Amino acid sequence: MYELIQAGERSYYIECPAKIGIFLAGEGEVYLIDSGNDKDAGRKVRQILERNSWRLLGIVNTHSNADHIGGNQYLQRQTGCRVFAPGVEADFTRHPILEPSFLYGGYPPGLLRHKFLMAQPSAAEDAEACGLPAGLEIIPLPGHFFNMIGVKTPDGTAFIADSLSSAATLEKYRFPFIYDVGAYLDTLERVKGLDAALFVPAHAPACADIAPLADLNREHVMEVCGLVLDLCAEPRCFEEILKLSFDRYGLTLDFQQYALVGSTIRSILAWHLDSGRCEALFRDNRLLWRRI
């Protein structure tokens, strides 16, 4: 774990739970793509940089999930580096309480205010307003989160963040986290059409051909979206749909999964509603979902 792997002439990544990219911008100067999930990850990254005599100029965060920005604060304090994040992701990076608040739909209880859902704050600049450092190209990848991006380097390495998951992750968790289902499905098609020498997803093995994994992710997402719609064959409230979804896949609900999977199922229901496949009914002061 935390092994440095060369991906291209000027590109590297660190093998860890959420892969961290490195772009060699100049003689001994580098930018990171994401920073890991906490201070310990940041410390390990700093050690790798020091061993290679690399000076950290900045961090480009693909999005603001805690496992991608958790090392920001430590590295920024140690090196004075800049942090870039796209659009609203910069706001979430500056104010990490927004992530568990968004997931919970209100002020999050202590059970959700932990490092896996709430990183330490860092001073992030809006990458969409100021642009990325020279040599790095923004790839819009919305759907998983609000303004998620990928980053492509001049040697053709595409860091594609959480745009898709490995087959093992899909099998284990069943419900990938999705904020906007329609945008996510479009992103899967966009990723397949990217011209890149190597694709580096955050949570799947790096590969030269991303299309098979993108197709698998699409198939899996359509499966879980179909399940949610089938569960609405009779009017059901969100809590019933969530319970039956976990029952169907033999999953065990806890507070974190309630927030994460619950958010995804709400997004799926919104997608079905906006697409005319289901309707929202209010009966006896309950919101019920019914397939049309």
CATH class call of the largest domain: Alpha Beta
- Global Rg: 20 Å
Give the full name of the CATH homologous superfamily of the largest domain: Ribonuclease Z/Hydroxyacylglutathione hydrolase-like
Helix/strand/pairing category = alpha/beta
Total of domains: 2
N- and C-termini, Cα separation: 49 Å
Mean pLDDT rating: 97
Number of helical segments with 4 or more residues:
11
Give the DSSP E fraction (strand runs of 2 or more residues). 15-25%
- Helix fraction by DSSP (H/I, runs of at least 4): 25-40%
Supply the key terms.
single chain; 292 residues; alpha/beta; Metallo-beta-lactamase, Chain A; Arc Repressor Mutant, subunit A; 2 domains; four-stranded mixed beta sheet; globular
Structural overview:
The protein is of the alpha/beta class and 292 residues long. The chain folds into two domains: 3-162, Metallo-beta-lactamase, Chain A, CATH 3.60.15; 225-291, Arc Repressor Mutant, subunit A, CATH 1.10.10. The chain is 39% helix and 22% strand. It is built from eleven helices and 13 strands. The protein has helices at residues 39-51, 66-69, 72-79, 88-94, 98-104, 127-130, 167-173, 181-192, 211-231, 238-249, 255-274, and strands at 3-6, 11-15, 20-26, 29-33, 55-60, 82-85, 124-126, 137-140, 149-152, 157-161, 198-201, 278-283, 286-291. A seven-stranded mixed β-sheet has the order 1-2-3-4-5-6-7. Strands 8-9-10-11 form a four-stranded mixed β-sheet, with no helix packed on it. Strand 8 and strand 9 form a beta hairpin. Helix 8 packs antiparallel against helix 9 (211-231). The longest helix is centred in the C-terminal third of the chain and has 21 residues, at 211-231.
